[in-house]
Amino acid sequence: MKSLFTQQHLQITIERLAHQLLENHLDFSDTVLIGMQPRGVFLSDRIHQKLKELIPGVSIPYGMLDITFYRDDFNTSPELHIAKETQINFSLENKKVVLIDDVLYTGRTIRAGLDALLDFGRPESVELLVLIDRRFSRELPIQPDYVGMTVDSVAAQKVKVLWKEKDKKDEVVMLD
Amino acid sequence: MSLSVKHLLGIKDLTPEDIDLILRTADNFKDVLQRPIKKVPTLRDTTIVNLFYENSTRTRISFELAEKRLSADTINFTASGSSVSKGETLIDTVNNILSMKVDMVVMRHSASGAPHFLAQHINASIVNAGDGINEHPTQALLDAFSIREKLGDLKGKKVALFGDIMHSRVALSNIYLLTKMGAEVIVCGPPTLIPKHIEKLGVKVSYDVRKTLEWCDVANVLRIQLERQNKPLFSTLREYSLYYGINKAMLDSLKKEIIIMHPGPINRGVELNSDVADSKNSIILDQVQNGVAVRMAVLYLLAGKKEE
Predict the structure, then answer these.
(1) Is the dihedral of CA A161, A115, A107, A32 positive or negative?
(2) Which residues form a coiled coil (chain A) (predicted)?
(3) I need a labelling partner for A27 at 20 to 30 A (CA). Which of A67, B29, B169, B234 fits?
(4) What is the CATH number of domain B7-135+288-304?
């Protein structure tokens, strides 16, 4: 097991990502944040919190999306996936959506996420923010717009982001 | 995580974990049903036949909607107007349908045990949509979902089942489900409509409607099933209504608010007066709405069940 990110490093990176979002969206008047269930939500919680500190008084619509029912491996996956909660209490019609996930790997989760998003309206644009981009392992033509860290890894390895809320500590590790 | 069963033949075969999984999955589908686009692509390569050997309004429409909301292809079969009248057997009928690449069967039949019999002869998953006087598992699941939605949890809740316990498959499925999930159950009705030894299922028996209403958090009022009663079990509907029907004056005289449920169709003025069925205590139409989400959950979990 190799540590890629320590807690302090993670905090700085999240701060940077929040600033990059701010740079591109400024007042967030038409922008909404969507965290991907299950583990992208920990990251989107932090980013949302950070943005609230950076631009106090502005309320940014924030939701979470579960893509279980949109997966492309319902029949081929060795296990049945159990859905988590989706909470998007606003329309995405003509909004700029920032989709947030912890690790971008094959791109299939994001593909499903894009499908699911359309059921909530037609967004003006969709951007993708990820903490870890495992490059050279994409199975679909999907690329992130904001990246915390780019990692080169082989399929046998697994990159896991640990969160204090769930795993008792903040850290990014690579498991062989 | 998945269900412990390949078919949903009855609540009797489910574990409390299965029931919990179905109800939690139904929460997610209920959310899908509130969206502008009430449909997910999950079962797009699944074909489901709705095999109805007995009449139905709610259950058949609810299953069909659930299947469509999951993007499954559906075929509707009703016994009347089919080759059943030419003498084709159940197994032959089903095998012919399955040979056209159908993956799942939803079946209602007037004979108790018909889906269990079919399960021994075909490979496809079967969902029991009501078999004779045995079980109606999806109804019990949607009842539980509706109670849980109103009261938070089933454990420790007091549920009374009123009316024709003897002929009601809804009653039996509810008894299995509620006792498995830790609710307290009383069945209440005229002695002729309550089966002997029903206490063995873990329920109490009462013949006093008023006392039972005073006791319960939820009153699930069941339909008098005249079509299944071969001999008279009470003298007249009027007499039944007088002694065992539930009316608004009774509810108003209770010291607390209770929830009124009914699986439908209602015999208005017999087991339930209109002023109760349409009152704010009644969650009868919520039950119907929840039925679609619960059936989506059942179909999703069975279709996704992996071969071991």
Answers:
(1) negative
(2) none
(3) A67
(4) 3.40.50.1370
Q: Which of A84, A102, A107 is nearest to A147 (CA)?
A: A102
**Among residues A3, A32, A2, which one has the least CA distance to residue A123?**
A32
Residues of B in contact with A120 (CB under 8 A): 35-37
**A7-25+32-70+85-155 — its CATH code?**
3.40.50.2020
Question: Computed from CA positions of residues B20, B53, B103, B62, in that sequence, does the dihedral angle turn out positive or negative?
Answer: negative
The residue whose two tokens read 């690449």 is B101
Does the pLDDT of residue B308 top 60, yes or no?
A: no
* Residue B245, CA distances (Å) to B4, B66, B270, B272 in order: 39, 33, 6, 6
Instruction: Give the integer Cα–Cα distance in Å for B304 and B100.
Output: 21
Instruction: Please state the domain extents for chain A.
Output: 7-25+32-70+85-155
The CATH classification of domain B137-284, taken from the options 3.40.50.1370, 3.10.129.10, 2.60.40.730, 3.30.70.1150: 3.40.50.1370
Q: In angstroms, rounded to a whole number, what is the distance separating the alpha carbons of residues B124 and A17? A: 50
- Are the C-beta atoms of B104 and B124 separated by less than 8 Å? yes
Query: Which pLDDT value is given to residue B258?
Result: 95
Contact B28 A85 (CB under 8 A): yes
Mean pLDDT of all residues belonging to chain B: 94
DSSP letter (8 states) at residue B120: T
Binding site membership of B for L-aspartate: which residues?
A: 86, 169, 223
**Does the pLDDT value for residue B227 go beyond 90?**
no
pLDDT < 50: residue spans in chain A: none
Which span out of A159-168, B79-88, B131-140, B235-244 was modeled with the highest average pLDDT? B131-140
A78 CB near a chain B CB, below 8 Å?
A: yes
Q: Is A90 on the interface with B (CB under 8 A)?
A: no
CATH 3.40.50.1370 maps onto chain B at 7-135+288-304, 137-284
Scored b (16 or more CB within 10 A) or e, A36-54 reads bbbbbbbbbbbbbebbeee
A57 shares contact with chain B (CB less than 8 Å): no
Here the ipTM equals 0.86
Tell the burial category of B35 from Cβ atoms under 10 Å away from its Cβ (0-12, 13-18, 19+).
middle
